[in-house]
């Protein structure tokens, strides 16, 4: 029974996407060859690794065991390549980074741009997901690093401060200011709102907190990006809950009133997380250190 590295890469891709066709495309293998490799692994082991269904595949218990070991092998190879890259110029490395909406839209790009400019032999695969799914991806090894909000359950992961991230309420500057310097989500439930499109992790987080109050937010319109949310609020379409940095970056600040959101969940810290920082591949360790080197992260720590 022999598995080569292509077999393991293919099987990890199948485990992640739940579809042999898409997995074959991801690892650049023709579908018939990919199917043959999967069948060969199953024949070599004498057991099924996948449950075939009309809409894709899922892992059997044996498949989950193989995926766990395949991920460990891949991580070790990446660590080896990364450690050797210190001695071999031009040897490329790749880091799998998964981040939530707030970090990507407000904080990550400057830090990531500096890192990539300083490390031309390192590539980064960046994906946006909700914080709870990011934690699962890091835990399972399908991501090297994650950037998550403080509400995520990080019990079995290592994590370090990235940036503080406060959520605020924005409305048109002409609207009457409510009493006090802060307002709660419970005060906004009857107010028409502007939000991010369905599935946006930040918006889903706000919706979940409204649901805990037994309420459903009243959206007039939902748009893909935070700068579009701020633009619509500046035209008095409705109010919105956004990261404070997004409101101040929007270019619409003169037309907006910014109010502190008093709910406890509005005071957030963003964390960089990993299964174990000292066991990361070399290139991922470099990125983790770079993400923690900003002044805001140092202040938070």
Give the end-to-end Cα distance, rounded to a whole number of Å. Answer: 49 Å
List unreliable stretches of 5+ residues: none
Q: State the order of secondary-structure elements, H for helix, E for strand.
A: HHHEEHEHEHEEEEHEHEHEEHH
From the spread of the alpha carbons, the general shape counts as elongated
SS-based structural class? alpha/beta
**Which range best describes the helical content: under 10%, 10-25%, 25-40%, 40-55%, 55-70% or over 70%?**
40-55%
Give the number of domains: 3
* Largest sheet data: 8 strands, mixed
How many H/I helical runs? 11
Number of strands: 12
- CATH topology name of the largest domain: D-Maltodextrin-Binding Protein, domain 2
Average the pLDDT over all residues and give the rounded result: 88
Q: In percent terms, what proportion of residues is strand?
A: 15-25%
Radius of gyration: 23 Å
What's the CATH first level of the largest domain? Answer: Alpha Beta
What's the CATH architecture name of the largest domain?
3-Layer(aba) Sandwich
CATH superfamily of the largest domain: Periplasmic binding protein-like II
Explain what you see.
- This protein has 301 residues and is of the alpha/beta class.
- The protein has 3 domains: 5-76, Orthogonal Bundle (Arc Repressor Mutant, subunit A); 84-163 and 268-300, 3-Layer(aba) Sandwich (D-Maltodextrin-Binding Protein, domain 2), CATH 3.40.190; 164-266, D-Maltodextrin-Binding Protein, domain 2 (3-Layer(aba) Sandwich), CATH 3.40.190.
- The chain has helices at 5-17, 20-26, 31-45, 61-85, 101-118, 131-140, 201-212, 226-234, 244-249, 282-291, 295-300, and strands spanning 50-53, 56-59, 93-99, 122-128, 145-149, 158-172, 182-183, 192-196, 218-223, 240-243, 256-261, 267-274.
- Strands 3, 4, 5, 6, 7, 10, 11 and 12 form an 8-stranded mixed sheet that branches. The chain has a two-stranded antiparallel sheet with strand order 1-2.
- The protein starts with a helix and ends with a helix.
- The mean pLDDT is 88.
């Amino acid at each position: 029974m022999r598995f080569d590295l292509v077999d393991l890469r293919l099987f990890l891709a199948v485990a992640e996407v739940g579809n042999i066709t898409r997995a074959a495309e991801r690892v650049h293998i023709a579908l018939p060859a990919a199917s043959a490799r999967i069948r060969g692994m199953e024949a070599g082991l004498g057991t099924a690794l996948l449950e075939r269904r009309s809409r894709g595949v899922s892992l059997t218990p044996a498949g989950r065991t193989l995926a766990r070991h395949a991920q460990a092998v891949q991580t070790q190879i990446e660590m080896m390549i990364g450690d050797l890259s210190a001695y071999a110029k031009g040897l490329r490395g790749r880091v799998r980074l998964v981040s939530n909406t707030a970090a990507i839209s407000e904080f990550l790009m400057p830090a990531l741009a500096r890192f990539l400019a300083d490390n031309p032999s390192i590539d980064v695969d960046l994906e946006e997901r909700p914080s709870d799914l990011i934690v699962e991806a890091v835990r399972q090894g399908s991501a090297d690093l994650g950037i998550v909000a403080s509400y995520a359950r990080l019990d079995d992961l290592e994590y370090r401060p990235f940036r503080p991230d406060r959520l605020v309420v924005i409305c048109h500057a002409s609207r009457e200011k409510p009493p006090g310097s802060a307002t709660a989500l419970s005060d906004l439930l009857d107010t028409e709102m502007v939000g991010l499109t369905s599935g946006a992790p930040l918006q889903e987080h706000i919706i979940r907190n409204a649901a805990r109050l037994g309420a459903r937010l009243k959206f007039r319109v939902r748009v893909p990006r935070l700068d579009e949310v701020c633009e619509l609020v500046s035209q008095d379409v409705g109010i919105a809950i956004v990261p404070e940095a997004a409101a101040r970056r929007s270019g619409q600040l003169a037309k907006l009133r910014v109010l502190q959101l008093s709910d406890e969940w509005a005071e957030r810290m963003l964390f960089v997380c990993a299964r174990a920082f000292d066991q990361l591949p070399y290139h991922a360790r470099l990125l983790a250190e770079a993400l923690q080197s900003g002044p805001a992260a140092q202040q938070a720590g």
